[in-house]
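pls design
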């Protein structure tokens, strides 16, 4: 059996959580492979909106096992809070018993969010617009080989080594002028979360996942953030610190590229971005405000207003290429309804030359998006049960998109609720 992968194709917040929730019951195992608590997947459970940051989306399905893989950076305090929140919501979900943590995943130490905030706010450093969860400091310390891993928590020397690292970093933060809680309080909260972590299954998840595949189990690798935020292939430096693309699932979970099946890519019918960085089709002013409000485009993690703009085909083509997407999922077409026309960026003009692909090295001021006007659509998307009820003009928009990126759209999300998603029969 091969592993399927799901990734975001834009700058995050494409609605991956909702699609995963839709297909999750088909999988025995759902595995996160990158990022940490910087993600924010909102899912409705028993009519309540629940935001998952670190836990894989399979937690709501009693028969699905959930893996936090090696490529993830784990904040134990956040993980404890998230699990406790789910236990309070529905203890019968037994989330804590269906979770496997990679012993090789790296820990987000309690000092890292403070470093993140310092770099964000200090004028000497670039403002990236991070979630201030300490994600970049965690990956940086991993690469420096200064960090501690989840599996080390059982070692007798762990508390001593942790204390030494945190105390050293605490002094550094003090020298930088950061406002901090007492070191004792910081350590006490972290160590209590570490005790909780020890009650979970900490294992070699790559052995487990590969064995599961051998036994014919269905595995879904769940990507966090999105293609354009990939540390290598995204719009550096305004990116996150991990490999968000499909290839990241192989390294993050220790699964060979020869064992990959479907690669699902999720895109909105328009584009959004949080944080700084290039955004060629960005809208500003009243039009942007209207789209932002209609689409509820405010961060589920940080609540920040998202930047909004039209669909960008050159960027999407690039994302489809670097991920090898085999199926496209389009969300939020309903948000664009009731317009006479919907612009779609089909190419760029860069220094007078037409260009079909997004080039991450180009400067925004050199890029002139070229738009094609598509006929707008109307209608109540909440009534859509199947493809025959999708407004014709919206289907034309979808067909146009398929032709442009040369991948079939297999699912449409038709509204915010859990059940508002339809499958298109065109594989
Ligand atoms: P970091 O991942 O917190 O270091 O933030 C780096 C960049 O990635 C910032 O622009 C964040 O807004 C963005 N980012 C991180 N996680 C997400 C996400 O889940 N959705 C959308 N943007 C994200």
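designed seq:
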């Amino acid at each position: 059996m091969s592993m399927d992968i799901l990734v975001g194709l834009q700058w995050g917040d494409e609605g991956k959580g909702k699609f995963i929730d839709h297909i999750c019951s088909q999988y025995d195992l759902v595995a996160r492979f990158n990022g940490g608590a910087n993600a924010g997947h909102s899912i409705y459970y028993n009519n309540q909106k629940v935001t998952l940051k670190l836990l894989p989306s399979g937690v709501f399905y009693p028969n699905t096992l959930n893996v936090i893989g090696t490529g993830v950076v784990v904040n134990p305090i956040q993980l404890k809070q998230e699990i406790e929140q789910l236990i309070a919501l529905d203890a019968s979900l037994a989330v804590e018993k269906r979770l496997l943590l990679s012993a090789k995943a790296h820990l987000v130490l309690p000092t890292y969010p403070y470093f993140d905030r310092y770099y964000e706010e200090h004028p000497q450093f670039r403002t990236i617009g991070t979630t201030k969860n300490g994600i970049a400091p965690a990956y940086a310390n991993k690469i420096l080989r200064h960090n501690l891993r989840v599996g080390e928590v059982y070692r007798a020397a762990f508390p001593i080594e942790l204390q030494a690292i945190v105390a050293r970093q605490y002094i550094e933060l003090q020298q930088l002028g950061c406002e901090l809680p007492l070191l004792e309080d910081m350590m006490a909260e972290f160590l209590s979360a570490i005790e909780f972590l020890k009650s979970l299954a900490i294992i070699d998840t790559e052995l487990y996942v590969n064995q599961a595949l051998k036994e014919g189990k269905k595995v879904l690798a769940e990507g966090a953030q999105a293609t354009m935020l990939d540390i290598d292939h995204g719009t550096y430096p305004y990116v996150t610190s991990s490999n968000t693309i499909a290839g990241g699932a192989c390294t993050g979970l220790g699964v060979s590229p020869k064992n990959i099946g479907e690669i699902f890519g999720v895109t909105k019918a328009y584009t959004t971005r949080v944080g700084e960085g290039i955004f060629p089709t960005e809208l500003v002013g009243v039009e942007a405000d209207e789209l932002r409000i209609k689409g509820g485009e405010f961060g589920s993690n940080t609540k920040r207003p998202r930047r909004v703009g039209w669909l960008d085909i050159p960027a999407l083509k690039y994302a489809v290429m670097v991920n090898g997407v085999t199926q496209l999922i389009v969300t939020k077409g309903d948000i664009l309804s009731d317009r006479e026309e919907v612009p779609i960026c089909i190419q760029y003009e860069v220094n007078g030359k037409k260009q079909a692909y997004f080039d991450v090295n180009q400067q925004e001021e050199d890029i002139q998006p070229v738009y094609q006007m598509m006929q707008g659509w109307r209608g109540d998307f909440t009534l859509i049960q199947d493809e025959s009820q999708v407004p014709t003009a919206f289907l034309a928009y979808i067909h146009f998109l398929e032709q442009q990126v040369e991948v079939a759209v297999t699912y449409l999300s038709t509204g915010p609720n859990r059940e508002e998603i339809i499958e298109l029969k065109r594989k």
